[in-house]
Specification:
It is built from 5 helices and no strands. By secondary structure, it is mostly helical. Helix 2 crosses helix 3.
Length: 135
Amino acid sequence: MALFGNLGNYKNFGLLIIRVGLGIMFIFHGYPKLLGGVSMWEQLGGSTKYAGIHFLPVVWGLLCAVTETFGGFLLILGLAFRPVCLLLVINLVVAALSQFGKGEGLMGASHAIEDAIMFAGLLFVGPGRYSVDKK
């Protein structure tokens, strides 16, 4: 269609929209987890048992909250973009495994799977021109 024919010229703007939108949402979800304290971190970190990791749940929970909160901030900036995407993919795979392990099935895990796919793709595409990491 002619109406959408020139949108390919704005790929970097599209990446900016994705980065800012996902970054805000991950800050929104991660910040309360970060402020939740040791009991929240232990509960979060307990999800690693579904990935076969049964030690240091408080540490894993804290790392999850830090990854979501500060990872969201770094996504918005486009700083350390690819390492953040990789950490978020790992975080989301554990979240999906946790949903499956709790018996919530594909419908329960779908949000984590969708975000993991998005970050896996962004890992290859990069942050775009409008970022601190621009090349």
